[in-house]
Amino acid sequence: MPSDQLAPQEWREEDIRTLVEPIVVAAARQLREAKLPDLQQEAFPWRVERTPYRLFLAEFLLVRTRSDIVARQFEGIVAQFPDVSQLAAAPENALAAALEPLGLRKRVPLLSRAAHYILEHHAGQVPGSIEELLKVPGIGSYTAAAIAAFGYDGYEVLADVNILRFVSRLTSLPMNHPTKGSDQLRCLLPLLSQGQVGPSPEKLLDFCRLICRPRRPRCEACPLQDSCRYFARLRSA
Ligand code: SF4
Asked: Which of 41, 1, 37 is nearest to 223 (CA)?
């Protein structure tokens, strides 16, 4: 059987390099260039005015709450706590009252600890390296990567489940794990980065959430039909 017809589970490292990586690179380039009128350009406030502090706060709030709900409350919270030092100085009951409408009361002590940590270790400036961000209480790998990517134009592509699912569909490599994906998939993510040939982090995230969406991907609106193995299977079914 020719190697491009191998079942995905039979792919060897060499097949990944020669057959799969070019598909991902081509898709990254196409996505970067594609105009996607069907993609909702969601003007979330932390994207319109993008600073590391606003992104830190937004990502912290978004861990447990839908983005449209956070968006409605966001500017009010920033006005009340405009920087890390004022966040750290805020009494916990004031923070609790601000986060109550988001259902995030329980995250108040963690947010307060995170602010104190940044104040103490980084003079109130949200750090830009993933390594340093991961030391901040309450910041996990997704949030650290998001702050580095959006706040500091870091090149790392988030190991987000929607992005991993898109790469899995594009290449036919199996997810293996429902949220973390497989090692093979995660190794392909840097090829999608803006620093290589890929789209902006926001465009990639929006594409994966709204077009190559979790259920019923909108293949009819997708510029990657010709290179996507999932679409090829749909067409031949
Ligand atoms: S063609 Fe469909 S499955 Fe493939 S990347 Fe586009 S939306 Fe996703």
From this structure: 37
